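Two entries, shown back to back:
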Amino acid sequence: MNYRVRISSTAWQHLRTSLLKDRAREYAALLLGRHYESSREIGLVLTEVADLPRNAYATHRIDQLRIPTTYVAPLIKRVRLSGESLVFAHSHPWSIEPTFSAADEDGESKFFPALQSRAQGVHGALVVGDSGAAARIHTLSGVFPAAIEVVGDTVQIFRSRRGGVKRDESESAVFDRQQLALGSAAVSLRDLAVGVVGAGGTGSAVIEQLLRMGVGDLIVVDPDNVEDSNLSRLVLATDADARSGKPKAELAANRASALGQRSKVLAIVGDVRDCDVALQLRDRDLIFACTDSHSSRVVLNQLAFQYLIPVVDMGARIVRTSSGVRDAVGEIRLVGPERTCLVCQGVLDPEIVTAELREPGDREEFVRRGYVLGPSEDAAPSLVNMTVGVAALGVTAALNWLGALGKEPPAIVALDFADLRLRRLRADAHAPGCPVGGEQGVQGMADFRQLPCRKS
């Protein structure tokens, strides 16, 4: 079982400013959030920082602090009634890469059993240092080191000391050029848990790059099988795969084996619009959305905000008229808190979403009314140079988002293949009433809100 704490970069900067304002003393704060639990991971999604006033400290030194229960009791009552999670955070101002001290162990051994007796659930502790941080999650069954993922304009991941993928010395020769390019960031790619939704032309090219870069944990989701018409653009597929009708999602594991990679690959032959599939992506560090349907992107857009998971939405399209090619465009959108919302960008059409989710007989009526436009995805115009180009741009944007290349990526990148132009675009602000990222939206709701997916 893995354990994780997610927090938006705005809340994280608020917390760091509050805790590190005076390097001569430890400071504390309380955070509130919600939890999620899957077969592979238990996590906290934190959304609110509750600062403590200066007079809240009974003991306040550089190496120790103590907070009377009167300042904590109102929040304990709140989480008991709401089912939310409570996290106690404090600073180690003298430490660059902090760890929990013996004094921390002693304090938590008293505080968290008392908290669980009043508000059973998933709670946590954070310690913040000059540049690093550490976390652990407290459940009824024990205390567990947790990774920290900070998501916003950039993505930071602080791994627990027990975490990470075991490395083999023989791998160093495989990735030595990558190490020269990325430095320590190349090593951290081995620890990444990535999801790829859609293993078609763009998705298969993304998977190929992730495997060759040594990403350690990959989930691939696609409901379809390989067909002859796919072979010109599925970089992972062979003629034998088309003849046997092999599921597209299963190609990634075969490719990892052929490359001799130690990447763990889970193939899900299913539809992300089904809840039992979508919820398996909650433990990902990052998700690539390589699907063109509006209804599947609705799910991934909400997943990004509800669980604070960075999503790279990507696609390519060719529009051809009787006079020739009118458009040949690829787009990359970084979706998540403080980034892009596909609803607010007008990318998703509610009528098309409704049409796509209809039964086949009902769908024909929506086609007649013009809500489903153009050919199906399999019959749509496509060129392998475009899908591979968009995939490379998307993977590069993800590396930038993770800080591997030292540059902050734009929210939207548009690549005009016909004119050979690349444009960096800003995302529009959230619409005031946005049901996803707005003030009354789902940001940070975790398992406390239903995703817009189909229940089994």
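entry 2 starts here
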Amino acid sequence: MTPKQLGEKLHHWHNGTDAVYAAGSTLFSGHGVAPETAQKAIGLLKIMLPKAKAGMHGWGPADAKELAALIKGLGAYTGENAAAKGPKFVLTRIHLDRGGYAKDSGRYYGVGAQLFSVEDEDGKFVEEFRAADREAAKAKVRQRFPGARF
């Protein structure tokens, strides 16, 4: 499940302005979730899970299965064993000439630190940014998406 899909599904389970809503909104808009927010959202979803399993509030087995998947999906943003289950990205360096133009496309970026592009597996999240080196670029991505894999 992509971060955007996770965000969309979380919107079915929030109660207004809670942590589930916050996590869903930030994921749907292409941003990562702070570990504290993810943990709070997981806590709220875990309260609902036994109720869904018991058939309360008109919920059923399919709802319980979806809640379990959402809890698992949000787990990637808590920082707990995140490296094993975080979202996967492709990180590419964009090579520039001395004038700040991309060597492959000719697009102007200006001069400065190395330029990188990051894209999720589905190509739905793409961003270009500067960093001192590849490891610094990975660290920047992990600030927004804890547990990100490359």
